[in-house]
Hints:
By secondary structure, the chain is α/β, with parallel strands linked by helices. The chain contains eleven helices and 14 strands. 39% of the residues lie in helices and 17% in strands. Strands 5-2-1-6-7-8-12 form a seven-stranded parallel sheet, sandwiched between helices. α4 runs parallel beside α5, α6 runs parallel beside α8 and α8 packs across α11.
Amino acid sequence: xxxxxxxxxxxxxxxxxxxxxxxxxxxxxxxxxxxxxxxxxxxxxxxxxxxxxxxxxxxxxxxxxxxxxxxxxxxxxxxxxxxxxxxxxxxxxxxxxxxxxxxxxxxxxxxxxxxxxxxxxxxxxxxxxxxxxxxxxxxxxxxxxxxxxxxxxxxxxxxxxxxxxxxxxxxxxxxxxxxxxxxxxxxxxxxxxxxxxxxxxxxxxxxxxxxxxxxxxxxxxxxxxxxxxxxxxxxxxxxxxxxxxxxxxxxxxxxxxxxxxxxxxxxxxxxxxxxxxxxxxxxxxxxxxxxxxxxxxxxxxxxxxxxxxxxxxxxxxxxxxxxxxxxxxxxxxxxxxx
Length: 338
Ligand SMILES: NC(=O)c1ccc[n+]([C@@H]2O[C@H](COP(=O)([O-])OP(=O)(O)OC[C@H]3O[C@@H](n4cnc5c(N)ncnc54)[C@H](O)[C@@H]3O)[C@@H](O)[C@H]2O)c1
């Protein structure tokens, strides 16, 4: 089977990024197999004319049946994960089981089936304790929140499988991804999709801290393009790559751009950082509650990724401007919410 035309398998395919990637792979004529347990994703993300865009298996990645689905597969994109930070923090064993154990299950099934390459979706959250910006891929990292700790452990498993078995693995560290199909309706939606949802519904969003916290945002189409490069590029295996725009925007700046795109004049209500995860009271209960300082640091976290390695080795840069990306995000959300 040729490397350029072989079958791809996408885990987490019913989620925001997995479904966008799956659709683009299918559009390009790649035979694809799609896997998701639908714990957080939505089948609607994958439907075209009432049918999934490619064969779909409702399966937990830890299920031994995954190995059978890997037969004849050339490339695996592993995106299945529990990604909401407060969910990981309040259910740490499940987060480790799925994000670490699930990744090892994917790697092992891929190794046994003779898959050529596995591209893993990690996160810029692994840099959460770092203070030198922009963060570079070879900076030492020491995350302390559950989500980032699981992703760091999963990264190590990917790199270990490359070193020990020669399975081609690629680690990609996404910064804040936004765009059409990001889940607006879940309990803890990402910041952009939350603000879009609230403004389109005519409600005032509740935001935290002073709104001056800045983060690096990247549009979904650019993330999909990076994944396609990672599938084939000879410099990718064994590498860790930031998926960043290299621009940090404050909450207030993003808010203005969403206001403009939605035509809303509603102002946000800013609350203390301590209330950020108040929908998860179990985190502040008991003798060892989540440290208020740690939560505040998370709310106020600055993020900015170095773009040089991904640009110089893979030839990728984020191309979509924030206003353009946000206009497309809002146009799509209007269709979903009407
Ligand atoms: N969206 C971002 O800004 C961002 C940033 C950094 C990293 N990431 C990573 O990218 C990946 C995709 O993110 P997303 O925003 O599309 O998240 P998402 O929650 O929309 O998609 C994840 C999908 O994985 C599925 N899933 C969860 N556990 C599973 C299991 N055990 N077996 C099979 N499927 C399972 C869910 O049902 C969901 O459809 C995740 O690994 C996430 O950690 C995302």
